[in-house]
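#help-structures

NK: newbie question. if I give both the sequence and a SMILES, will the prediction place the ligand too? trying with pyridoxal-5'-phosphate
OV: yes, paste both and it writes out the complex. here, I ran yours:
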Amino acid sequence: MDIQSVREAFPILNQDVNGHPLVYLDSSATSQKPVAVIEAIDEYYRLHNSNVHRGVHTLGSRATDLYEGAREKVRHFINANSTKEIIFNRGTTTAINIVAQSYGLANVKAGDEIVITQMEHHSNIIPWQQVAKRTGATLKYIPLQPDGSVNLEDARATITSNTKIVAIAHVSNVLGTVNPVKEITKIAHENNAVILIDGAQAVPHMKVDVQDINCDFYAFSGHKMLAPTGIGALYGKEALLKEMEPVEFGGEMIDFVELHDSTWKELPWKFEGGTPIIAGAVGLGAAIDFLTEIGMDKIYQYEKKLVKYALEQMRTIDEITIFGPEERAGLVTFNLEGVHSHDLSTVLDTEGIAIRAGHHCAQPLMKWLGVTSTARASMYLYNNEDDIDRLVAGLKKTKEYFGDV
Amino acid sequence: MSNVNLDTLYRQVIMDHYKHPRNKGKFEDNDSLTIEMNNPTCGDRIFLQFQLDGDTVEDVKFTGDGCSISLASASMMTQAVKGKTISEALAMSELFSDMMLGKDVDMDEFGLEDIEALQGVSNFPARIKCATLAWKAMERVVEEE
Ligand SMILES: Cc1ncc(COP(=O)(O)O)c(C=O)c1O
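OV: that's the protein plus ligand as C-alpha cells.
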C-alpha cells in the first residue's frame, strides 16, 4: 500500500488546524472521504439526479441504475447471496432498530431471552432493552474477560434454549476487540436463536463475508467506511426478511394500495419506504470501489501494523493506561493519569490532533472498565507512523503541561 | 508547544479549584435538596446538595466526576451561591451563561473573583457545556424548591 498516494486522495488531511498540520485520529467516529467519493456524489447531482423506481424518463432510469448498482456493490463487498438481502438505510443504528422492531417484536415473547455483551455500543443495547420491556423478555449480557474479550465458554453459558436473539459487535469501538462472531453464530444457531452482528467497526477495516460467518443479520454504516453520512445497510438472510413486516410505510415500498389495505413490494424494497438516500448510496458504491482497489486484506494488515506501533510508542509513557486486548483492530482507548480525557483532548486539539474523549456511546462498558471517560485514538488507512509520533509527543506535552499548571 | 491559547483556558485559579475543590462532600442528613445531573454527551456527572434556610442558601456541597473545567466550575459555583438567596443565585447563573456566550458581564456581581478565570472557556466552544453543568444543576435544584 502506497501510503503517500492514499493520503493524497483525502483532501481534508491537507490542512493546518490550530497552526499545526492536522492529525486525524478519530476515524471510528467517522472516516474522512476520498476525492473519488466526493466526485461521485458531485457527478450524481450534476448529471443524473432524479427519483428512483418512478419516472419513465432517462434520468430516472440512470438514477435507478446507479442506486441499484450500489446495492450490487454492497452485496459483493460483504458476499451476500442476493441483492434482495441488502437493505439501504441510514446506518447501523437504523438497521438494528429495523431488526428489533420487526423481527424482535414479532418473535420474542415473555420469558424469552435476548443476549448481548457488555461491550456493545448504545445502538446495540437500547433497541433490545425496548424489545425486552415491551415483550417481557429478559436482556442478558455475555460477561467480558479481564482483557475485554469474549470467550466461547461464557457465550455457551449465556445463550440458552430460551434465547431468541443474540446481538454482538464484530469489533468493539472502545476496546478494539475482534469478536469470534463465526463461533458465536454457531452457538446461537445450536440454540435456535437468530444472531445480529453490529459491523460498524468491522466492515470499514476488514474483509467481511456474511455467508462465511453465517449470521442472520449484519448492520453497518457508510460514513465510517469513506462514504457520506446518512447511508448504511442491513444485511438479512432472505428467508428471514421475507417473513418480516416493514417498519416504515409509505411510498416506494408498496405493491398495490387499496382503500383499506395494501401489499408490499418484494425484497429489498419493502423495507425502504419513502425516497431513498440515492446520492448516499452512490457515494457508498464509490467508497467500496476505492477500498476494493486497495484491498481489504492489505488495509487490515496495514492497520494492524500501525496499531502495534501505536501501542509500543504509547507505552513509553509511564502514566498511560491502555484498555483492551493485545490483539486488536486499529484503535487505542486509554487514559493519562491525572488528566481527564476532555482536558487531554483539548490540549491535543491545540496541537492539531483530533481524538475522541468521553464515554464513546458505551456507558455499560465504561462502568465495567471502572472509568467515567476515556480517550480514544482510532486509525484508518490514511494514517501513518508520523501521526502516531505526533500523538505521542502531544501526550508527553499534555503530561508536562498538567504537571506544571 | 505554544501554550498561549491553552493558558487562557487552564488558568492557575482553575487548576487550584480542580485540585483542591471547595465544598466537596455530602451531607449526612436526608432533608437536603439533592440533584444528580450529567452531561450525556461526555459523561461528566455532578451530585449537588443544598440546605436552604427560607429562601437563602445556607450550605451547599457537591461531588462529581469530570474534567478540570467542570469540577473547577462546580467548586466556584458552590462558593459563589453560599449565603445568597435563590433569586440571587439564579441571577448569577444567568450572568454565567452570558459570560460563556462571550458577552461582557460585570464580574463584581459574582462576588467571587475566581470565576473570572473561567471567561477563557468561551473561546473553546466544545468545553462550554463542561463549565455550565454545575450551574444548570443548581438552577434545577433551587427551581424545584
Ligand atoms: C460499534 C458501533 N455500533 C454502532 C454504531 C452506530 O453507528 P451509527 O451512528 O452510524 O448508526 C457505532 C458508531 O459509533 C459503533 O461504533
